[in-house]
Amino acid sequence: MSFLLAASAACAKEPVILSTDVGNEIDDQWAIAYLLTDAQDFDVLGIISAQAPTLPSPSAHYTYQILVDEVENHLNMVEHPPLLEGSSFPLEDTKTPQRSEGADFIVNASKAFSDRRRLTVLTIGAATDVASAILEDRSITERIRVVAMGFKSWPEGGDEFNVENDPRAWQVILSSDVPVTVGCADVCRANLSLTLDQARQLVSRHGLVGAWLWAEFQAWYYRFVKPLRQDDFSKPWVIWDIITLAYVQGWTTQQVYPRPVLGDDLEFKPGPPGQTITWITSLDSKRLWADFLKKLDAYERSHALRGRGQDR
C-alpha cells in the first residue's frame, strides 16, 4: 500500500491557478499555451485576468476578453478551466483588498488544500488579486504558495513592470507568511531571450498553436523592437513569464534568502527574522523549450489542428 501511495503522489498533477495580464505583452500567451497544452503535469483550476495601467480601462476586463479569445479560439478549447476577471485597479492600501471574482476564486479554491499540499498560484502580472485574497482570508497563507515573475534582481528588488503596477500588493505578499518564489528580470533575460530568427525556428512549424505564438512574437518584434534597429535583427526579446512554469517543472536552480520587505521606492529592505524567500538563479532553457515543443505537438495531434495556418 505504501508503494501505491508513493506512486500516486509521484504522478499527481500540480494544482495551479494562473493570474495573467495577457494582452500587455507576448510572453503571457506563451505561458498560457504551455500551461493549457500540458494536461500531464498541471491541474489548472482557473485563470484570472490581471490589471495593467498600460491597457484600455477597465484593464482586467480587457485582459479577460483577450483571455477568452485566446483560450477558446487560438487554443480551440471547447472545454477549459474557469476564466475569471480580476480587479482592474491596484490596491489602495496594504489593509484593504480589491474585491473581484478572481480574488474570491483563489480564496475558495484554496480551501481544498493545506500546508502539506499547497495550491500553487502563478503570478505573471500585477499581484493585486493574490494580495487581495490574502487580505480577504489571512489563513490562506497556510494553503497556497506564490510563484511569480517579478522584480529586477537580487538583492536590490527593483521596479520591474509587474511589481510597479501594484507595489502595495507585493508589500502585502512579502509581509505575509505565504511561501514565495520569484523569477526576476535579470535571470529571465539571461535564459529566456529569443531573437526573431530563434523564435521562428523554435515554434513556427509546431502546428496551429505554434504558428499563432510565432505570429504574436513577430508582430510584437516589428512594432516594439525593430523600429529601434533599422538593419539589425539580432536584438532578442524575452519570454519572461514562462520562468514560473520552469520552476514548477523543476528545471531551475534557486537560492533561499532571508525574506525582505518592499519599500515604497521598490527596493528591498531587511525584513523580520525567520521568514525566507526562494529566488530563482538560473534555468535549463534547453529542457524547457524541448518540453514546450513536445507538448505543442501532442496537443496538435489530440486536437486535429495540423495543417491549418502554419508558417511555410
What does the model show?
- The chain is built from twelve helices and twelve strands.
- By secondary structure, it is α/β, with parallel strands linked by helices.
- Helix 2 runs antiparallel to helix 10, helix 5 (128-136) packs across helix 7 and helix 10 (207-225) crosses helix 12.
- It folds into two domains: 14-192 and 239-302, Ribonucleoside hydrolase-like (Inosine-uridine Nucleoside N-ribohydrolase, Chain A, Alpha-Beta Complex), CATH 3.90.245.10; 193-238, no CATH class.
- The strands form three sheets. Strands 3-2-1-4-5-6-12-9 form an eight-stranded mixed sheet, with helices on both faces. Strands 7-8 form a two-stranded antiparallel ribbon. It has a two-stranded antiparallel sheet with strand order 10-11.
- Helices cover 41% and strands 19% of the residues.
- The chain starts with a helix and ends in a 9-residue tail after the last helix.
